[in-house]
Design a protein that fits this description.
232 residues, 2 domains, 15% strand, binds zinc ion, alpha/beta
């Protein structure tokens, strides 16, 4: 089934009457079979989905940096495109149901979900999370969990609260500082596990890399990555 067809299936599966019935992209009224975005807009979105060439490009991003098992991403992100608009709605307009919905669609392109033991949303800086009130990666993770029944783990991967001021360091120190943004606690829970790291968007890969560096310190922990969008 094509990714676009997934929208039809998922849209038809349930109808949330409390959600405003207009397309979040073009603002036209939605019909009974549509949810969050109209079919026409859904068809027009720039999918990465299962495009091998584009996925390979994303894999190459991590070559020589950290070992990643698989990378999954749904939408191509470019400045000013519809993907950027969707991410903006999720992050700054609190369209959590929209994010969860796209998480469910993202789940459809994850091959072999039965080999994944836990979903780990990339944590926000605690201060940022307090300000925003939610973590957009967690919202996407919820959608994936709904579809796959893989449990979400938010306790093991943590973002260290105190980033050292970056300005007074040399370029190398700065990079070293970035690498230590994340750490793992209760690491026993992740030993011998294959985890799926989830974020909203993949651009330079620096955040994802920093997370993976922390996770790979755990004995026999392997990591795949799923992002709603990626710049390819
Ligand atoms: Zn539309």
């Amino acid at each position: 089934m094509s990714v676009a067809n997934q929208f039809r299936t998922i849209s038809g599966a349930f109808l949330d009457v409390f959600y405003p019935n207009i397309c979040q992209i073009c603002n036209t009224d939605l019909n009974m079979n549509e949810q969050h975005v109209c079919l026409s807009c859904a068809y027009d979105l720039p999918y990465i989905g299962q495009n091998k060439k584009e996925l390979q490009k994303l894999e190459k991003l991590f070559w020589g940096r950290v070992e990643v098992q698989r990378i999954y991403s749904l939408l191509n992100y470019q400045r000013g495109n519809q993907t950027q608009r969707l991410l903006h709605l999720l992050k700054y307009k609190e369209k959590k149901k929209l994010g969860q919905y796209f998480g469910e669609v993202l789940a459809e392109v994850i091959t072999e979900p039965d080999k994944i033991h836990a979903i780990l949303p990339v944590p926000l800086h605690p201060k940022k999370q307090r300000l925003r009130g939610f973590n957009q990666s967690r919202v996407i993770a919820d959608g994936i969990a709904n579809k796959t029944n893989i449990p979400i783990n938010e306790t093991c991967l943590i973002r260290n609260a105190h980033n050292l001021s970056q300005t007074k360091f040399s370029k190398y120190d700065r990079w070293d500082n970035v690498r230590q943004i994340f750490s793992v606690k209760q690491s026993k829970q992740l030993e011998n596990k294959h985890v799926l790291l989830v974020d909203d968007v993949l651009t330079t890969g620096a955040t994802i890399e920093a997370c993976i560096l922390a996770l790979l310190k755990v004995e026999n922990c392997t990591v795949s990555v799923a992002t709603l969008a990626a710049r390819v």
